[in-house]
Input
Amino acid sequence: MKKVIFLVADQDIKSILEGILQRFPQVWGIPQFQYEIYKHQNRDSGCVNTGVDFLRPFCKIFDYSFIVFDREGSGKESQTSIEIESNIEAGLSANGWNSRGFAIAIDPEVENWVWADSKNIFDTIGWGGQQENLLAGLEDAGFKFLPNGKPERPKEALVWALKIKKKVFNAAIHKEIGQSASFLRCTDPAFLKLKDIFTNRMQLS
Output
């Protein structure tokens, strides 16, 4: 069974990954795999600046590696997610991972994965069957929306939505969201890259 190591920026990303990774084999029909998730003490900028160094000792222990972080807070906001990812992946390759190391820069932050058109996620955050009310409430509260229908500030929008329903914004809710997310409806580029790597670019068998 293949082993995958993740270096992530914070507990929220770790929790969402814990919620979704266990479902990958069942949803996508890929072989089972083992994984471990580590948090970088310097969060997003730490992943970008020293993540390659952190993972170097693991390249002969694990089959694949990922560095996952928010573009916002990375210190590289002047670059696109693709540019940041490419630089990190070049560093991983030069440090022994070859084509087995990947970077995932979530733009702007991991809460963007929450705002997929998923009934299960709305149920989890307490707005099941009230999606239109939630979106209208966010708009009334001053939140702006992107052309794809997602809030420009996904984290702040999630905090607001949870507060209205007297729920707590914490790692536990992120894990619940990961466990309930619809893989079919998420259009976030970072998530789609993660899916493509697992389904097309990794040899897990």
The chain is about 45% helix and 10% strand. The beta strands are 3-8, 34-39, 64-70, 101-106.
